[in-house]
């Protein structure tokens, strides 16, 4: 049986050991591609893989657990072990990771008396139930049990959020009580303020730092903090940022490969290990992208999590991969390296639409109506992700050709407002609440408001802000009074198989657009959404993510695991009434360079 220890250095089987790790999140890479990505990590000369686990996908509803498919943690860890990779597990209830609400399940919001990510006993009770299911999978795979997990992390970057040591100790105790006995660590920004607030260094828990440049400076700060507390510990960067994530309406962020390699080299020459964040970023499939908190206008992140990492979104090596492998060969000549695995994506031009239907004509196939006096939030309706449609009837109180005033009071994130099926306003974030002036065509008029949850904040001070409750949070006013008598439709779009594409299509309304394409065998591809406005796409019934004409990334990656030989179905749900009669599949991503900051 192997051993792993933390003393003045890391020791594997009693010998000094440099951790060369790369981050791969199983939930962002199709399970059929796990081995491809893990092999490429090993072939680059690295010896360890690091991964978060996402509570919100594992426990989508209270007490309902799913460890299959993307959540098959056991299979992912075992795949790494078969390739000879050690494993760093970060099973924090909160992960950040640019993941929807930092991985916290949205159903936690239904209890407004509870404070998530704190010592609140009600929150810790939920974490305990989650750990009852999660930890047995990890415990039996620890190096102390003959497995490949060498270290686990307590919470994540807590020093960038709060300084409640009792909460951190509670998470620690929940892990240890369930059998975790490998060395534990925390990870935070490497400056004293973050380290002081977020670590358990006085409890002999290794403090690591997160950074992506100025390695000497940041490791010196980490070492000084260790020494301040009387520790002679190894220096490790738990998240060495080799790229960055992207947001709607901004240019794609790139990092020079030579600059990255120079900074990684400096880190390894001074420190004792690092974890590249990310090695393979992958994709925020479905509605799992997060949002960056800002003072007024939060900025939502895109579907692609390419991250400009050593492996691109598809999992193929980039220039960074080859240059990092060259560096490993130079610094660690005994490390095993090899040529990478490379996949080929397919392209198909001008696929004609086979059907389209307006959302308002297929509501019964997608949801059951919920009636209430006032509109309810998405969470109070029992929904976590996607869209919510609010419908009522309003009377005309002014002259036939005069404008009426409507206001959506306090809602998130984006509202599409329709009167008698015609769109009269689109409002996003801070514009929600402004007057909507429109002429009501009849004495009594149907009012529909389609609210989109574009992703919750994943990091920072707004994590528990009321803005993270989605949908309409207060009400809707006509003139000066609140409108009552609402029907609500939850539209998480988890099952679109019942849609009847012959039910009728109306221009300008949100609609489903259907296409078919044929493959000789399962294959990777990229959906080119150019010419379509905003929405999400489904391949053979699976939500592969959001698109938006503001860019910068105009394609959606489809892994071969979502396709099959023969006829495949592609459906776009589009909310702006902007569409094309054909759609194309590309063999590589399409980037639209922008000259603006932020989305209007």
UniProtKB/TrEMBL annotation:
Record-level Gene Ontology MF annotations: beta-galactosidase activity
Family statement: Belongs to the glycosyl hydrolase 35 family.
Hydrolase listed as a keyword: yes
Domain Glycoside hydrolase 35 catalytic: 10-330
GO biological process per UniProt: carbohydrate metabolic process
UniProt entry keywords in alphabetical sequence: Glycosidase, Hydrolase
Domain Beta-galactosidase galactose-binding: 510-568
Native source species: [Collinsella] massiliensis
Protein name as catalogued: Beta-galactosidase
Active site annotation, chain numbering: 157, 239
Taxonomic superkingdom: Bacteria
Annotated SUPFAM superfamilies: (Trans)glycosidases, Galactose-binding domain-like
Chain ranges of the Beta-galactosidase 1-like first all-beta domain: 375-489
InterPro entries the record matches: B-gal_1-like, BetaGal1-like_ABD1, BetaGal_gal-bd, Galactose-bd-like_sf, GH, Gly_Hdrlase_35_cat, Glycoside_Hdrlase_35
Bilayer-crossing regions: none
């Amino acid at each position: 049986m192997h051993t792993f220890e933390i003393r003045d250095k890391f020791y594997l089987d009693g010998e000094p050991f440099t951790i060369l790790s790369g981050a791969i999140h199983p939930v962002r890479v199709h399970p059929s591609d796990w081995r491809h990505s893990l092999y490429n990590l090993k072939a680059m000369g690295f010896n360890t893989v690091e991964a978060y686990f996402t509570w919100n996908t594992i426990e989508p509803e209270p007490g309902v657990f799913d460890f299959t498919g993307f959540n098959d943690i056991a299979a992912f860890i075992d795949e790494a072990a078969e390739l000879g990779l050690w494993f760093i597990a970060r099973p924090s209830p909160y992960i950040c990771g640019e993941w929807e609400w930092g991985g916290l399940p949205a159903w936690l919001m239904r209890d407004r008396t509870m404070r998530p990510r704190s010592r609140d006993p009600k929150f810790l009770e939920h974490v305990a139930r989650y750990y009852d299911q999660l930890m047995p999978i990890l415990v039996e795979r620890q190096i102390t049990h003959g497995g490949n997990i060498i270290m686990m992390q307590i919470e994540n970057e807590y020093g960038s959020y709060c300084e409640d040591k009792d909460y951190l100790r509670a998470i620690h105790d929940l892990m240890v009580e369930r059998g975790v006995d490998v060395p534990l660590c925390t990870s935070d920004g490497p400056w004293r303020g973050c380290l002081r607030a977020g670590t358990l260094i006085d409890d002999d828990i290794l403090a690591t730092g997160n950074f992506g440049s100025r390695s000497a400076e940041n490791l010196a700060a980490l070492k000084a903090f260790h020494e301040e507390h009387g520790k002679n510990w190894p220096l490790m960067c738990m998240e060495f940022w080799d790229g960055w994530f992207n947001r709607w309406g901004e240019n794609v962020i790139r990092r020079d490969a030579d600059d990255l390699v120079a900074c990684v080299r400096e880190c390894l020459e001074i420190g004792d290990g690092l974890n590249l964040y990310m090695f393979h970023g992958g994709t925020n499939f479905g509605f799992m992208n997060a949002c960056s908190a800002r003072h007024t206008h939060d900025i939502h992140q895109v579907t692609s999590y390419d991250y400009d990492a050593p492996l691109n979104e598809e999992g193929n090596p980039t220039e960074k991969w080859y240059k990092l492998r060259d560096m490993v060969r130079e610094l660690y000549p005994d490390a095993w390296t090899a040529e990478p695995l490379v996949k080929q994506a397919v392209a198909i031009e001008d696929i004609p639409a086979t059907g389209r239907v307006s959302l308002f004509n297929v509501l019964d196939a997608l949801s059951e109506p919920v009636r209430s006096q006032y509109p309810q939030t998405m969470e109070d309706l029992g929904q976590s992700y996607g869209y919510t449609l609010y419908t009522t009837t309003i009377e005309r109180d002014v002259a036939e050709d005069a404008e009426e005033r409507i206001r959506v009071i306090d809602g998130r994130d984006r509202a599409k407002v329709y009167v008698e099926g015609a769109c009269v306003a689109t409002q996003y974030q801070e514009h929600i609440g402004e007057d909507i002036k429109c002429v009501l065509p009849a004495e009594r008029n149907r009012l529909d408001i389609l609210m989109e949850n574009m992703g919750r904040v994943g990091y920072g001070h707004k994590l528990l802000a009321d803005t993270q409750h989605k949908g309409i949070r207060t009400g809707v006013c006509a003139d000066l009074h609140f409108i009552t008598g609402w029907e609500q439709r939850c539209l998480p779009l988890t099952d679109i198989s019942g849609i009847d594409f012959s039910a009728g299509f109306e221009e300008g309304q949100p609609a489903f657009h259907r296409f078919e394409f044929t493959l000789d065998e399962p294959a990777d591809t990229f959906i080119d959404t150019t010419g379509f406005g905003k929405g999400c796409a489904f391949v053979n019934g699976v939500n592969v993510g959001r698109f938006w004409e503001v860019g910068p990334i105009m394609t959606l990656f489809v892994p071969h695991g979502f396709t099959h030989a023969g006829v495949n179905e592609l459906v776009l749900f589009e909310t702006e009434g902007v569409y094309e009669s054909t759609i194309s599949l590309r063999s590589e991503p399409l980037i639209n360079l922008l000259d603006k900051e932020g989305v209007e």
